[in-house]
Amino acid sequence: MAVSDSVTTCLSQPVHYAICKLGFEKKDTYDINNILSGNGEVCWQAVTEHVCYLESDQSVDYIKSIRSLGPVCESVNVHFKSLTKEQFIIQYASWLHWTNCTEVFLEVFDVLQYTQTTEVALGLMKLTSCLERALGDVYLLKGNDCPFLLRDLLASEQLAVVFGQAVMNVLRIFIGSPYGLNLRNVLWHGFASPQEIPAKYCAMLLFLTAGLGQLLQTYLLQTKCILLHRPYVIFVSLEELDVFPGKYLNINLNYETLSVAEELVKLSSFVLKTMLPFWIAALTAFKQSRYADSVILLLPQLEVGLRLLFTTTNKCPNRLLTAESSAFYTTFDEMLAKHLDNEEVNQLPVVLEEPAMASEFLWDFLNHQEGPRVRDRLSHGEINLEAFPREVANQIVAFAITLLCRFSDDNMFSLKEHTVIKPLMNCASCYQSRFHPISRLKKQVLECMKSIQLWSKLPTVPEEQVQTIKGLEENPEANTLILMISEFTSQLLQYMPQNCCNSDDPINSVLTERLLTELCDTRICTLYSPRPVLEVVVILRKISTQCHQVSEQVIASAEVRYTQWVNKTLRSRQRHNYLRMLNSIKFLSPVLRLILILITLEVVSVHAICKKNPFDYQQYLKFLKLVLQYTENLVTYTSPGKNKWDETMELTNKALIKIRKVCDRKLMLMHLAT
């Protein structure tokens, strides 16, 4: 029997007991009128009376509190089932407006009428996400930096001031504390199967959210404060997320593809059989264009599937279950780490066969700070669920299909080789990170090079007009600069791709966008980049940013000055300065292009250099900081308010001399590394 067939629950015994049994031990029938006033408001005092406290330190006794609140939750659930949608809206909708996503909570009410376990779990995940975001907005009435973790948010003094500590204790019994039901975390991290989440807890959280709205309204009236909602995060540059690009490679998650995926779900060893309803619901949601729902359902299942592989390959089967309050969950962060907490090497990347592909994709979409961080943003309520883009859902679903296929039996050959599946597998096999700092640096230098290339198209003054300007002297630094750049560039030829350079004209043949693109296309495994490499990349990115700013300033100044020249609105001194600028940028362009090429060579070679030649790291950082200082000064000198073009040439000459000295040794190290 496969491991995925034999696992009946991912909840440890104490957690399973707390969620599935503890709240059902008291068989009392609780009168809803005890906690609901005649005008439809929540009687919070009656609710908080069910919270029990330890005699030792007066902290919440979660076990007794869950047991006591069980009949209350059931009463609320029955009450909601007795209401029509119209009745619920009339009685509760106005108290949900403070969440800024009333429609989500109305959807949860709809789900509770039918008690479909998968939909209840989905509703609870969406409810906790939106509730957390709304509570964060309330926190900002009293504080500045909203806590990232829900448990810290619920334990904050700021929320206790608004709602009262007793009310916050009620919330922490259901969400946010590892000692309570912790419903948010067991669902979002993929530990609970659909049948393990009682609908009455979802109903109770819906009821409590309305009650919080009542308390908040009173607080806002008393304090004259205005609740502001933070804007949602919007995914930008969606083309960067296009890993499985349908419009280019005829890959489309159409009905046929999703039908094959449904067959894979039923047979793949990546899927725990208890979680099968989540997978089917996720694919169904995608078919129905409910893209946020599809991804919300799918992300926890990717986590539990990878956790199954992680615990099996690293021989720690106990880590498949939910951790107790005294230990950590086995989550994406640990599963994607290079080493286990006992310093042994994590075996999961080896099992994935294409470790760079799977791990880099997951790091890109879930973890890297400059990536979409889909799971974080969804689970913390940072995204408008109604506007969740299909493009993002397309990538997550397609990636999930590749994992289903990868961990399917060989006798499923016909499905694996299906014409709609093979293109997905081909795309996945050649995936390269897009949001690792090294990948972002590559993108930066290419954008900067494109900007510098525009210099050649800038309008310029005809030579005959230049000759009429008296007192304009040639800069003595010019010839020295050209010589140094030529020699420098010639030295780099041996490290360039073949047949891309002309040794007779090294400057114009080497320092090109085409060459830079070729260098950036060099595949670099960014997974588990050592800290020294990342420190180098931070400085290189700063250098690239400064170079780009210089380029933008030059373009802006040149266009303005040319217009003023044509309109004859420049004074004599300004005309001289403008012509010095035109002369300077002829030499500045190859210098900046040279720096971009050097940056890219650094990225390509730094791993090998560090591994084979443990040169003086601090000296190397000093060199990079020297280049950074030069580019920062360049930003100042070329700014519209300074326009110090003679000083720019002098600064560049001195900087190149220093860079040349250090680079002679660096090029030798690069040679040894290759």
TrEMBL record:
InterPro entries (UniProt xref): DUF4209 (IPR025209), ERMARD (IPR039635)
Signal peptide (from-to): none
DUF4209 domain span: 131-211
Source species, domain of life: Eukaryota
Name used for this protein in its record: EMARD protein
Species classification: Eukaryota, Metazoa, Chordata, Craniata, Vertebrata
This protein's encoding gene: Ermard
